[in-house]
Amino acid sequence: MLSLEAHMMRLGVHVSVAGGLFKAVDRAQEKGCDAFQIFTSNPRAWRSKPVSANCMNRFVSRLKESELSPAVAHMPYLPNLASPRDDVHAKSVQALSQELMRCQALSIPYLVTHLGSHLGEGRERGLERIMSALDTALSLAKNDVVILLENSAGTRNSMGSSFSEISSLLESLHAKRRLGVCLDTCHLFAAGYDLRTASALEKTLGQFQDCIDLERLMLIHLNDCKGPLGSHLDRHEHIGLGHIGESGFRAILSHPAVLRTPMILETPEDSRRDDRGNLDAARSLASGIK
Prior knowledge:
Layout: H1 4-7, E1 11-14, H2 23-30, E2 35-38, H3 53-65, E3 71-74, H4 86-105, E4 110-113, H5 123-140, E5 146-150, H6 163-172, E6 179-184, H7 185-190, H8 198-211, E7 217-221, E8 224-225, E9 236-237, H9 245-252, H10 256-259, E10 263-265, H11 275-287
Parallel strand pairs: 1-2, 1-10, 2-3, 3-4, 4-5, 5-6, 6-7, 7-10
Antiparallel strand pairs: 8-9
């Protein structure tokens, strides 16, 4: 039997919007989600076709009818908020502001963004560029959508692999109420933050709270990691089958700070498991079932 805390969990996956944004709601329900994440535009292109008013209205209507909450959007892959290249930076700011406005129209409260790469220009320069991008996009899209800064795995030149770096951004920007954090467990582990035991998790969350108020943690990307601790390998694995392991996810899924935070799985789908299989695995580990 699931504990009361486990019943309060909001678990979901990233779902396709093929055939229309509104179809994502049905897909999320079919997979057994409590919450879900989507791309509102083509994730591999700078420009996407505008979403029709009819499609937006159908999405909002279906979302209201469902019990799914929250709906989360993720930024496309091409924008680089830390880019030192003026043309790429300008297009990235435009893409971010447009996504914020699209989220508002779709009644999506959160937009997750990667922080990008400084391309060898250094972390200070990278932070300056990200701050500029966030400030500009937030001023262009004056609404209530919250941007969630996602931590990185610490691959070469990437920004946001440390809590202190994310904290610098949160504290330097004016629109603090519109900024939060999305912690990806695979990225955390790959960046060197241990999650394999209850004591390791407690230490990692303590480090987070030393830099950032836990109230800023608004979403978790729940993924196991194909690489060992500190490998900087951004490769997601099925829940409990990677280097974080079942014991790590039991600890994660029983921690009060985690249980109050919506969680989105971005795990692979293959012959071993599909999305529903990973949701079931997470719920089983949360309930203490071995």
